[in-house]
Design brief:
Helix 13 packs across helix 14. It is built from 17 helices and 24 strands. The strands form 7 sheets. Strands 1, 2, 3, 5, 13, 14 and 15 form a 7-stranded mixed sheet that branches. The chain is an alpha/beta fold and 483 residues long. Helices cover 37% and strands 21% of the residues.
């Protein structure tokens, strides 16, 4: 029986999952990645490290599960979005990839807003995290690199080049470049021209469920694969995670508590809300789109607090649950913010501390601040006409029942916790690989069983309301104070 693999290239690591013909997980393998921050607000990675990590996970699966790898028929890709991987004429990487959470291009983003219809054609605000302003920054500050650039790839698509020799992207990931006509699902000559580019520097586009190429013979031999597996178009990390929980029909979605925080809802049409800094992208399945509210520092806020206090994140969530409610508030804008503020210069803050503040009170403020930021995002989605039904809770932060309850209370959203391993984008990528090898979306994209639901508590929502009102006043006050 055929097997399928999904490779998820994240910011902190690569995860690869192997599934059988029925979609059940056979095994997974992981490899860590590091981020380089050469200047404040910058965030970069070496694409060579991506390949070493991805190939290492496949080496491990081939070693431990040779029969399953021999039967591999399809591979899907998922990856961190927006990264600018610049290649020369010989496909040589010209500089480290500028990542999604890099804020250096704020000035270029503001300038691009004035020169092309990014809001209409691109369906999104021009945010520094997106790919287009990164290329505008390179054009202005590293002109020799820009002049040598012959191909711009997103992170997962660089892995595809290594796997197949083909330069291809899918609609969901390409929508996050700001060069895609999101409604038309094609590159926009006008948006590319605004950055001094054309479709000659862009990869070919396919749907996430379609074939983009086949695995190179040398790699088939390396991993003991009997045939030539097809490699699917794949998807951006969030679209692939939606495939993992079967959120491929309008109104379905998830809430992710990873490094960033995401509320994802599938839609039947391209319906932007630029004023609310809502992300409007193509889905990884044909004929479908999705809206996202994104905050940049969700579980990363807890990781930061863990680093400065010397306490493990799980210990901090336990201390937070035991701590009393106080006036302490936290703005989780450690790397700037997207929805709803679109402000790369936004910064985090503790407010309302007194001498009694300890690690538990700080942790409770952090978890609550992230919940309030997600509530701002939920409000922006609702303002775009999106009805938010029950959402699957994903990501490392979803291990904390207390944090999920606080988010449910702050947002008014019912959260579903799935049974089984939380393989997220890697599992969704494997399902896309399954589709490229011949399966239908309906057969491959099934929702997981629900272990339990966390429903909003009306009394708790009422108790949090005054603190949330103060939270909403703090961002403009801090922005004006630092201007």
């Amino acid at each position: 029986m055929a097997t399928h693999a999904g490779i998820d290239l994240g910011t902190s690591g690569v995860k690869t999952v192997l599934i059988d013909h029925s979609g059940a997980v056979i095994a997974d393998a992981q490899a860590p990645l590091s981020v380089q921050r050469p200047h404040p607000g910058w965030s970069e990675q070496d694409p060579g490290a991506w390949w070493d990590a991805a190939a290492g996970t496949l080496d491990a699966l081939a070693r431990d599960h040779p029969a399953a790898m021999a039967a591999l028929a399809g591979i899907g890709l998922s990856g961190q979005m927006h990264g600018a991987t610049l290649l020369g004429a010989d496909h040589r990487v010209l500089r480290p990839c500028i990542l999604w959470n890099d804020g250096r291009s704020a000035a270029e983003a503001a300038a691009l807003e004035r020169v092309a219809d990014f809001h209409g054609i691109g369906a999104n605000l021009v945010m520094p995290g997106f790919t287009a302003p990164k290329l505008a920054w390179v054009r202005a500050h590293e002109p020799e690199i820009f002049a040598a650039t012959r191909l711009v790839l997103l992170p997962k698509d660089w892995l595809r080049l290594c796997l197949t020799g083909e330069a291809v992207s899918d609609m969901s990931d390409a929508a996050g470049t700001l060069w895609l006509d999101v409604a038309g699902r094609r590159w926009s000559p006008a948006l590319l021209a605004a950055c001094g580019l054309s479709d000659a520097e862009m990869p070919r586009l396919v749907e996430g469920t379609a074939a983009s190429g086949t695995l190179l013979p040398a790699l088939c031999a390396r991993w003991g694969i009997a045939g030539r597996p097809v490699v699917a178009g794949g998807g951006g990390d969030n679209a692939a995670s939606a495939c993992a929980v079967g959120a491929v029909r309008p109104g379905e979605g998830f809430l992710s508590l990873g490094t960033s925080g995401v509320i994802f809802v599938a839609t039947a049409a391209c319906r932007p809300n630029v004023a609310g800094a809502v992300h409007m992208f193509c889905h990884a399945v044909p004929g479908t789109w999705h809206q996202m509210a994104v905050i940049l520092s969700a579980a990363d806020s807890l990781s930061w607090l863990a680093e400065v206090t010397g306490q493990a994140p799980d210990r901090l969530t336990a201390l937070a649950e035991a701590a009393p409610e106080t006036d302490a508030l936290f703005l989780p804008y450690l790397s700037g913010e997207r929805t709803p503020h679109n402000d790369a210069g936004a910064r985090g803050a503790f407010v309302g501390l007194d001498r009694a503040a300890d690690a538990g009170i700080l942790a409770r403020a952090v978890l609550t601040g992230v919940a309030f930021a997600l509530a701002d995002g939920a409000d922006a989605l609702r303002a775009a006409g999106t009805a938010i039904g029950p959402l699957y809770a994903l990501g490392g932060g979803a291990r904390s029942p207390f944090w999920l309850q606080r988010i449910a209370d702050a947002t008014g959203i019912t959260l579903r916790v799935a049974e089984g391993a939380a393989l997220g984008g890697a599992l969704g990528a494997a399902r896309l690989g399954q589709c490229a090898a011949g399966a239908t979306v309906g057969a491959a994209m099934t929702p997981p069983a629900v272990a339990h639901e966390i429903m909003p508590d009306a009394a708790a929502t009422a108790r949090l309301a005054p603190a949330r009102a103060r939270f909403r006043r703090l961002y403009p006050a801090l922005r004006d104070a630092l201007a």
